[in-house]
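Standup notes
- HV: blocked on the assembly model, inputs below
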Amino acid sequence: MPTIEIEYSQATQRLQSADSSGPAIISTPSGLAILEIQGELTLPSDVPLDEAEKAKYSLDSDGMDIVKFGKLELDGKNATLFIGQSQRLVGSLIKLDKPLGVMRFPETTETGNVPENYAVKFMDVITQKVIFKQRPLPIM
Amino acid sequence: MDIYTRLRPSRQYKLLELTPEVLTILEAGTEELSIKASGKDSEIVLCSSDATFQIRQKNHTNTLLLMNHTQDGADERLVGFSSLSSELELTKVKGKIDLISKIPVYANFGDDLSRIESCGFLDITVDELVCRSPVSTSEFRTLWFDKYNGCEIEGKAVLLSRGFITQALNFVLTALLASELDMARLSVRDTLQAVEDTDYTHELVRTVLWKFSLFPTVNEQGEEQFSLDKAKVSKWYGVNALREHAQRLISPDEFLIAWKSAFPPFFDCPIDLQMLAGYYVRPLVDKIQYINLDTVVLVEKDPIKRFKMLFKLQSTWDMPDILPFIEDLNVRNLKIDNFIMKYAKKKRVGKKFVVTGR
């Protein structure tokens, strides 16, 4: 695979359409957003069996397991992220220095081989992100 | 709004920092974009039709979530579907043909493939070579024809020696002069007809036209249309003439006569020693001598040593004459005067500037 064509009509369509009324200010019209947190986010590897715990879990539109890990509040450019019951992060919505192209690569097969008709896609271009630069603030 | 993330984030996504050039291409949507690499472990590049960008991975330790924003009535959520620990960065580079040293070289006209004189052994077509080179199509063609004398013979990518090209150029020019074709509007087909020799294939004529013309346009029939560039032809014969006299010093006047007589009969084009800057040195005020830029000068990458070597060859240089010998060293793109001042002295003599050692 020395040369791979990139398919980017989706990104072009998005960039050319004048419609910029996405669901909200933090995402692109196609609904993509970036959230950056300093440090690592530790996630459970499986959905727990405990009924009380289960409330936080659900499925996304692709049928994948998802977990709720926080709540985001936006006030203009200022953002506050509450994680769990005890942590609060203060951050902001910033414009990126360089726009980021979202590329999607095909899934590699289990043997690690590259599938046939290997195609790389540009899905969208993102120009801003929500970033939390400061240390978490505990909530009593 | 509630924030979710997948328990098993997708690994299919990458974020690429876009340069203004690439963003413009994405917005216009007409140009091809591709990712290329010459081998498994070699560098990876992004190519547009005429530019090459190196792709580098910048790792970071933050958690960067790529999220889907959905709103269903009052239920607004962000769902992270991919977690990224790196971003890809683009740097514009000059495309190159990594495999060039493995391409067979034709030394003489009429050699058959089994008698090729070189260490090259790669048996691939030109199209395959384009695929396997980290370079955009347009840059490839310029490098392939202008720099390396590339051609395709019997379906194989090959390089032609200087002697081979000279012989082919002589023949094509003579045929063109006899045919009275318009040298500013040449197609490979018309030129082949004028040449009338079965030894001259479509590819060979195309190499000659690419090499000695301005960048071609496309005519109404969809063929490449070339305009012969007399300066390129003139320079080619000039370098040939210099090489013929490489063993001794020659006066500029004597050299200009040798140069003029190197052209095919009735081919008229301007000659000026200035066109050959970078191919000769002037060890004495009124004598010049051929120098091989690629094998003698450019191999020395240390600017201090390079300048020292140049002043050994010639103690005083006219400003334009020294440029081809040093331009590649100016990697930080300084103003060329300032770059020269770092390693040499610049003096004003009459109306022109000369460069000397410190």
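- HV (later): unblocked. Chain B touches chain A through 52 residues (CB under 8 Å). Residues 100-225 of chain B form one domain.
- Next: hand off to the docking folks.
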